[in-house]
Amino acid sequence: MRFRRCAAALTAVLCCMSVWSCSSKAETPSSAVIHEDGAGDVIEPAEDDPEYNLGSYRISAGGVKLYYEEENYPTALLLYLEKLFGTYAARDYDTYRSCIWPGYVEAMEEYLPKEFDYDLATSFNNRCDSLEVDMGGSYKLTRIKAEVPEEDFSDAFFTQLAPICGDDFGEKVKGEADNIYCVQLYIMVKNETDTDDQLFFKNTENGMGIVVVEKDGKYYAFC
Question: Is residue 135 part of a domain?
Fold first, then answer.
């Protein structure tokens, strides 16, 4: 699967144009045939397509365009990311909680009431409220791009979690996980009134780093 590495082009094309002003040759989410792995065929935009510089993509069953190299990240990981970040738009706490590493959930359930006098469910709802305000109302995910970061930042990431989860948290996770993925992630959304996509999180034009672990065929994050 081909992906053109051009952050400037991504930002310019996605933030400054209507992403639905695509060539008629492009496959739309409603017409994509979804395979057993949960995504459609690889789509290669034509050179005269406004989305050509974004590279190839696959469409999920949920209609999200997924940009990634299959030799770097499995399709199931991209679908997991769609599921995880889609919980904020859907305000689906139960699904969100199932996407998060159990040990992290336990640590946050202890930390949040002690430091902020509310629980993880309240924290999740507060984040949903904040994101909806930032996005200008109700919204839906439209694109997810996953790139390999320049370096593995998992050690630094787990070190940051140590004050909340314990000094040995990272080693415990590494000992239990089957795989650990560092991802430079870009997410685009569109609200109900705008015609253009926008970045899901502020100040992430250059992507945001996320660590995802795989255990027994399931994926988990720490957010």
Answer: yes
